[in-house]
Write a structure and sequence with these properties.
The structure holds 2 protein chains of 2 kinds. Chain A is mostly helical. Chain A contains 8 helices and no strands. In chain B, α6 crosses α7. At the A-B interface, α1, α4 and α6 of A face α7 of B.
Chain lengths: 147, 340
C-alpha cells in the first residue's frame, strides 16, 4: 500500500518514544544546582583567603573552567552530562567541556589543523553570538547614554 | 529480458554461489552483548593497537577479512576481489584495510546496508563467472563515526531515546563459485531504491529506513510469489526499536504479520541494559550479526532460509545541516542452506 509523507509522519510520531522530560529536568536542576553550589563554595573560600569580591569572582570562574577541563580529560564530564543535560551544559564548566573535548578528539589530525582549528567547532557559535550581542548591548548603552 | 531477473526487481543466482567462510570481529561492548560467543574476535581495547580511531577501524576490518579467508581455507592474496565499505568519508576505513592485500578492491557505500550491498554485488560477480572467490566486508567504529557525524567523545551531550548506537564491529564473508565450498548459498536478492518519506531527524534513522525496508521486502515477496512465512527469518539490517516497530506496522496495514519470523540486527546485537537507546546501527552492526551468528545458524541447520535486508540511511552532516531529508535504502539477499 502507499503511505503518504503526512501519514508516515503521524505514524512515526506515534511510534517514537519521547525524551523523559521530567527526569531530564530533575537531573539538570540537581546537577546544575550542585555545580553552582560548588562555585559559591569556591567563591567563599577565595574571599576568606582575602581576595576582593571582583577578583574572587574571576578566580572562581578560572577554577571552574579548570575543573571542567580536568573532568573532561579524565572522561568523567560526559558521563555526568549524559544524565545532567543542560545542568552540565549551561554552567561555565560546560563551555570548558565544549572546548576541551574537540581539542582532545582532533589532536590526531595535528596540533594546528586538528587540535587548534577544531577547538572551537562547538563553542565557536557561543563566542560569535556572545561577543556580537555584547557589542550590540554596548552600542545601545553608549547611544542612549544609559551608563 | 535479463535472464536472472524475476518480476520487476528480484534477482536470482542460478549457480547459487556459496559462503565459503565468514568472520565477525567486534569491540568490547558488542562482545558483552547477547551475541557474545558468536564472534571470532572480541577486542579488549577498541583501539585495536592503533594510534587513531580510523586506523583502528581499518585494522578491525583487515583482521576480519583475514579471518574469513582463513576460515575459507584461503590466504587473502588468493582472493579474486575484495568488496568492502564503511561509514567514513571517502571510504577510508575499507580502503586502508585492504591497502596491503594486493587484491583487486572495490569500495562500497550503502551506509548501514553495505554488507547486503556487498553480498549482492559479490554474488553477481561470482554467479556471472567474473570471480571464483571474493570477500565482501563492512565495518563501523563507534569512535570514528561519532567524530565524523556527531560530537567529540568527551563532549557532554544527551541522546534522544530514538537515537541508535554505532556498533564497533566488522563482518566479512567469502563467496565462492564451487558448490563444495560451503553449505550456505546466496540464491537471490534485490537492489533497493531510495525511499524518502520526509524524515529529517538524524537521531531517528530507524524511522528514515523503515519505509525503504518495507518497499524492498514487499517488492521481493511480490516478484518471487513468496511471503514472510516462507522464510525462517526475515532479518533487517538495523532499524532498531523504532524502525522495527514502524516496519511491522507498515506490513500490518497490508494485512501481513511479519512478527513470527522477523528480527533486526540492531536489536539482536545489544541488550536494552547496554544503554544504546533504540539499538545498534552502523555498517558493522548487520555485518557482524550476519557473519557471526546468522551464517553459523544456517551452516549448522538451525536456520534454513533467511531473507536478509540491509538498510541504510543516506545522509551526511552536510545534507542534514542544509535541511535535506534522510532517504532510506534497503538491499535484500536470500541465504539458503543447501542440503547434501
Amino acid at each position: 500500500m502507499h503511505v503518504s509523507k503526512d501519514e508516515y509522519d503521524a505514524l512515526l510520531k506515534q511510534k517514537s518514544p519521547n525524551s523523559p522530560i521530567l527526569k531530564d529536568i530533575l537531573w539538570a536542576a540537581v546537577i546544575g544546582g550542585l555545580i553552582c553550589t560548588a562555585g559559591q563554595g569556591i567563591l567563599n573560600l577565595y574571599k576568606m583567603a582575602g581576595l576582593p569580591e571582583k577578583d574572587a569572582a574571576t578566580a572562581t570562574s578560572i577554577t571552574l573552567i579548570f575543573l571542567g577541563a580536568l573532568l573532561t580529560g579524565l572522561g568523567w564530564y560526559d558521563k555526568l552530562a549524559k544524565h545532567a543535560g543542560a545542568g552540565t551544559i549551561v554552567p561555565i564548566t560546560g563551555f570548558s567541556n565544549a572546548v576541551v573535548a574537540p581539542a582532545l578528539e582532533f589532536k590526531s589530525e595535528g596540533l594546528v589543523l586538528g587540535m587548534a582549528a577544531k577547538m572551537f567547532t562547538i563553542a565557536g557559535p557561543v563566542l560569535v553570538y556572545g561577543i556580537s550581542a555584547s557589542v550590540v548591548y554596548g552600542l545601545v548603552v553608549y547611544v542612549f547614554h544609559l551608563a | 529480458m535479463a535472464v536472472n531477473r524475476m518480476g520487476a526487481r528480484a534477482l536470482r543466482f542460478r549457480n547459487a554461489p556459496r559462503i565459503a567462510g565468514h568472520a565477525a570481529v567486534v569491540g568490547k561492548k558488542e562482545g558483552e552483548g547477547p551475541l557474545r560467543g558468536t564472534f571470532d574476535y572480541v577486542a579488549e581495547d577498541d583501539h585495536f593497537d592503533q594510534p587513531t580511531w580510523e586506523k583502528a577501524e581499518s585494522e578491525m576490518q583487515r583482521r576480519c577479512i583475514e579471518l574469513a579467508a582463513r576460515k575459507a581455507g584461503r590466504e587473502v592474496r588468493e582472493l579474486n576481489m575484495i568488496l568492502a565499505g564503511d561509514l567514513l568519508n571517502q571510504c577510508i576505513g575499507s580502503a586502508f584495510a585492504s591497502s596491503d592485500s594486493n587484491v583487486p578492491f572495490l569500495g562500497l557505500y550503502g551506509a548501514c546496508s553495505t554488507m547486503a550491498q556487498g553480498l549482492l554485488l559479490g554474488a553477481c560477480l561470482v554467479d556471472g563467472g567474473f570471480a571464483d572467490e571474493l570477500a565482501c566486508a563492512a565495518s563501523s567504529h563507534f569512535c570514528s563515526a561519532e567524530r565524523q557525524y556527531r560530537f567529540p567523545l568527551a563532549y557532554g551531550g544527551q541522546r534522544t531515546p530514538t537515537a541508535q548506537w554505532t556498533a564497533t564491529a566488522s563482518g566479512a564473508a567469502v563467496i565462492a563459485a564451487k558448490p563444495e565450498r560451503g553449505r550456505v548459498a546466496v540464491t537471490g536478492g534485490a537492489v533497493g531504491q531510495m525511499v524518502d518519506l520526509g524524515v529529517k531527524d538524524a537521531n531517528n534513522m530507524g524511522a528514515a529506513m523503515a519505509p525503504a525496508a518495507y518497499r524492498t521486502l514487499s517488492d521481493y515477496f511480490r516478484d518471487t510469489a513468496t511471503e514472510p512465512g516462507d522464510y525462517d527469518m526475515v532479518l533487517t539490517g538495523d532499524l532498531a526499536g523504532v524502525g522495527a516497530d514502524l516496519l511491522i506496522e507498515l506490513f500490518k496495514q497490508d494485512g501481513v504479520d511479519i512478527r513470527p519470523v522477523y528480527s533486526d540486527c540492531g536489536l539482536l546485537l545489544f541488550s536494552p541494559d547496554q544503554d544504546v537507546h533504540a539499538g545498534g546501527s552502523g555498517c558493522g552492526c548487520s555485518a557482524c550479526v550476519l557473519c557471526g551468528s546468522i551464517l553459523r545458524d544456517l551452516e549448522e541447520g538451525r536456520l534454513r532460509r533467511v531473507l536478509f535486508a540491509g538498510t541504510g540511511a543516506m545522509m551526511s552532516p552536510v545534507s542534514v545541516q542544509q535541511g535535506q531529508n534522510i532517504a532510506g535504502v534497503c538491499h535484500a539477499v536470500v541465504l539458503e542452506r543447501q542440503e547434501g
